[in-house]
From TrEMBL:
Protein name: RNase III domain-containing protein
Source species taxonomy: Eukaryota, Viridiplantae, Streptophyta, Embryophyta, Tracheophyta
One family name in Pfam for this protein: Ribonuclease_3
Domain RNase III stretches: 42-184
Alphabetically ordered keywords of this record: Endonuclease, Hydrolase, Magnesium, Metal-binding, Nuclease, RNA-binding
Essential cofactor(s): Mn(2+); Mg(2+)
InterPro entries: RNase_III_dom, RNase_III_sf
Source superkingdom: Eukaryota
Coiled coil spans: none
Compositionally biased intervals (Basic and acidic residues): 19-33
Length: 283
């Protein structure tokens, strides 16, 4: 029977981190030819961010993607590397000082929510930074459009339910790295700009659990053991069952992790209906 060939495993045993690393980045699936129209003037970036660069070449480098073939400027990859470290330091410092009683694990989770790919991509999109990017990636505009549609469905951080283009997050990090260098490595001056860019920041009050963690926690409280049917290679779907009853389904063909997150979210919404029907004992 075809169903017997599908992999059925405990939801906890789906190695989400490893899967996310192994799946190909849909953004880098193809390279593009560049658009004939040049990007707008980078002076507009300075106006939007409220920061005027002393070294304009740093600003240009921050907006030059690795796919852009030109002799006049390096790509933003080194600035992105630096900006990632600076950003993590700045947000960690903010949380350390703002929440003196918060445990290290909670501080880590709060920082991660504020600096993950989705949070940074949302900030970059808010300021339309992608319009200034020099690149040769024809798929980028379509990916950004899909991300914008996802944001309409999830106005605040979705925690893994939509697929943010990594290049948007990279772009914001490279800009942060450029500002850091341009300010002679001043953390305080860099933070003045970064804090504006990242608003609204996620706080302990609006920090949500990851869909899989939230679903597993609810299952533990109810005393039920979910199983996931892995159909992703065939259909892009993950199905979640409790006692052979389908309670959640998620689909996303490009990244398995997002399909899992959507399935867990769907299952969580249906979990309490299952509990009522089952008499409240989960067994």
């Amino acid at each position: 029977m075809e169903e017997d060939q599908d992999i059925v495993v405990s939801l906890k045993n789906l190695d989400l981190e490893e899967q996310a690393q192994k799946e190909p980045d849909s953004e880098s699936a193809k390279e593009s030819e560049s658009s004939d129209a040049p990007p707008p003037s980078l002076a507009e970036v300075e106006e939007m961010t409220g920061y005027s660069f002393r070294n304009k070449e740093l600003l240009k480098e921050a907006f030059t993607h690795g796919s852009y073939k030109a002799d006049d400027c390096k790509s933003y990859e080194r600035l992105e590397y630096l900006g990632d470290s600076v950003l993590n330091h700045l947000v960690a410092k903010l949380h350390y000082l703002s929440y003196p009683d918060m445990a290290p694990g909670e501080l880590t989770r709060l920082r991660a929510a504020n600096v993950d790919t989705e949070a940074l991509a949302r900030a970059a999109l808010k300021y339309n930074l992608h319009k200034f990017l020099r690149h040769q990636k024809p798929l980028l505009q379509r990916q950004i459009q899909e991300f914008m549609e996802g944001i309409e469905q999830y106005p605040s951080h979705s925690h893994g339910m939509i697929d943010p283009p990594k290049v948007l997050a990279d772009l914001l990090e490279s800009l942060i790295g450029a500002i850091f260098i341009d300010t002679d490595s001043s953390m305080d001056s860099t933070w003045e700009v970064v804090e504006r860019l990242l608003q609204p920041l996620i706080t302990p009050e609006n920090l949500k659990l990851h869909p899989v963690a939230k679903f597993n926690e609810a299952c533990q409280k109810m005393g039920v053991k979910p199983q996931a049917k892995d159909l992703w290679n065939k259909t892009g779907e993950i199905e979640i069952y409790i006692e052979n009853e389908l309670i959640g389904r998620g689909k996303y063909k490009l990244k398995k992790m997002i399909a899992v997150n959507r399935a867990a979210d769907d299952a969580y919404k249906n979990l309490f209906l299952f509990e009522k029907k089952d008499g409240g004992n989960g067994g």
